Give the backbone structure.
Amino acid sequence: VKCPPKVEVAEIIESLRSELWRSHRDLYPQDVVESIKSILERQNPFGVPREQKMRSYEGETSVLFFVGCSSSVYYPHMAENTLQVLRALGLNPTVLGPEEPCCGYRLIEMGAVDEFKRVASEVVSLLESRGVELVITNCPTCYKTLKEYYKRYTSPTFEAMHITEWLVKEAKFEGELAEPMTVTYHDPCHLGRSMGIYEEPRQLLESIRNLKFVELPKSREESICCGGPIRALYPELASKMSDEVVQGAIEVGASQIVSSCTTCYRSIASSAAFHAEVDALDLPTLLARALRRG
């Protein structure tokens, strides 16, 4: 939330939710309660068995690719493409697969602070017991949680980086597409406004030959939320928000709206499906295609 007088609105909401969870838990929607229960019991917020997560991969013990629940369960191709890009650039990280814990963001988001502290402590202990020194993730929410919230409630010794950070700072990514493509980029709330990652995704796009990058009418700090987080409760409002993103892409002549967030990708794709001239494309898939000259 952008507040001109610099009031930390998000932190106020977090505090109110924390008090609500402690004193009036019965007021919470049942699906939220079930989601919290699923994190604590099944290590994902979706209520699916852990075995439905993507497979594990053995790699460098000191480097972990933290896939995140959404990508692991619903969009494994994003995780596989991320892994392909990392390997092509000389990094072979470990992937925990079904043993990967949920980062726990949903807990802190809904005010279950004590439960989050327990999960964060368990995750940190697990990763440090395995000798992990660097955690790379392509999920903005996991990135925010591992880098910001874990440091607030625990003392992790590992470093957390978003995939775009690592590719720009450590790998100097370059690629090429077989056919010309005009794309725009949508800034996810957690990656952009929350964590300040704006330039790295753009630098990656601009490093791909045969790709033309154009900005959305509203981008960076002014980027429009995709509406994904509220879609279950307010579907009409969420659709209006993602529709505005799609209309902006059409306005600037982009054929693809690139996203580095599974929630944004799903939300934008749902609106783009009604427009033949534009589509949603996840960043890991685009990067993998560029490395293959595809």
